[in-house]
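W.,

You were right to be curious about this one. When I first looked at the sequence I had no strong expectations either way, so I just let the prediction run and decided to look at it fresh. Below is the sequence, 538 residues in total, followed by the output.
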Amino acid sequence: MLSTHLEQYFNFKSFRPGQEEIVQAIVNGQDVIALMPTGGGKSLCYQLPALASQKMTIVISPLIALMKDQVDSLKARGLNAVLINSSLDLQEIKSYLKEIADGKTHIVYLAPEGLNNKLLQDLLKKIKIDIIAIDEAHCVSQWGHDFRPQYRLIKNFIDSLPTRPTVTAFTATATPEVREDIIKNLGLVKPQVFVRGFDRPNLKFFVRKNLKKKAREHEVLRLIKSMQGSGIVYALSRKETEKIANFLNAENIKAVAYHAGLLPDERKKVQEKFMENRFKVIVATVAFGMGVDKADIRFVIHSGMPSSMEGYYQEAGRAGRDGEKAYCILLHSGADVGLRHFFIRKSREEMQKQGKNIAEIEKITNAQYDKLEAITNYVENNKCRRDTILSYFSDPDVSRIRQNGGCNNCDVCLNFEWEEIKTKDNKKSPTVFQSLSNTVLESVQMYQEGKTLEQIAKIRSLGVSTILQHLIRWYVEDDGELNIENFVTAEEEKQILKAMSEAEDYTKLSPIKTKLPDNISYEQIRLVMAKIQKIKLW
């Protein structure tokens, strides 16, 4: 019967893996939590029960643009659905609710903020609601990667209804901890839990690590030139999106930057033009992505390491939603981890300003560090990428991957060898030292000749710390190639970053040094601080 309705309403001959059992559970009146990746067909799982059984369904989603796309898509199929949001006046809302009461539509889309509107609440209570579907359900959990306080309104709304509906929660990304939080915070009753479809065989996963900043930029260019179709490049800051987009345009690749600093109308125009293939590449921060419904994205390149596996897989999952081959490539730099530690530290400070108690702050901060460690392991471990992803999300398909000895569809399983990165004419661009004094340049020249810090200090009758400060200036101000790893080990850097996160003033050396063992020097602290400073965050 469900297959008949599937073809009747959506013109599909068969369900995607995992969809049918979820739909059946909802039709049977069971609460459901379903973890399905971006492109896995979540929306059909709550639309079909509403249409097949003519049950009144409220869909709660955080993005008006996404809801509008889904309503327009349903209407294009000859099916009715309505979107109620803050842009409507009272008469329009009443008109839509009358349509619902008259049985003309069975699907209503709402933003969670709407549940705070008492007038709307009272109007909805007059209608028998059979199903409530919560999309992006990880937003209800403070341990999720995109927590939104408004999602905490949902449970109270459900509890206020005269008759409790079937409640269903959908998310593309949720760890077991977040999953339990979703169940608790939405008040799900004995929910059926489905973890399905995280293995998308058409996606190819590649990681290239420890790139220099300029080399990463050129690798982005090389990869885009080698691939057909349009794609997304994710960058870690607004400044980087602008820089990469300008670089690509200078190389005759149509690209545009997208970030939260753009005005709403500008963001809308950029997204519409990208959907129409007016640009080959959109270079974006994480502000772009949630709700993007472009099926033919052929590649997603991360120019920088995301903060979590959840965030990475959601963003990478924008690729290949049409089922055709697509590439998900993560280009890592040694500075990425330092940047992520900086963000965690800023988040901690913000929570302190908000007056959260220490225990809660510690729990949230530790969870953020755990997520950072997981994505770092994904980058650094020489293990099948797909195995790592499926294991993280507890997808049962991981056993099949292991039985086959890997996925044969990622850089590790393919024993892929990366090409040497070349700049124009295969020549290293000369460094411009206009902002540096001759005193600094003399130290830099000796360092480039291969002399050690001690040798330079002796020749110049200066202290080693002074020479190091010269090199740090060159490194930060003129993008000099100073190998920080030669002076600070990964473990020492981790200790320094942790001490910085705990120090009252992380821009000064002494408060940091007091939290570190004696073997870690002031010079090493300066070097780690320089890595962060180079990304222009201070």
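Here's what jumped out at me. The first strand starts at residue 32 and ends at 35. And, maybe more interesting for your project: The domain at 210-329+418-428 is CATH 3.40.50.300 (Rossmann fold).

Coffee later to discuss?

I.
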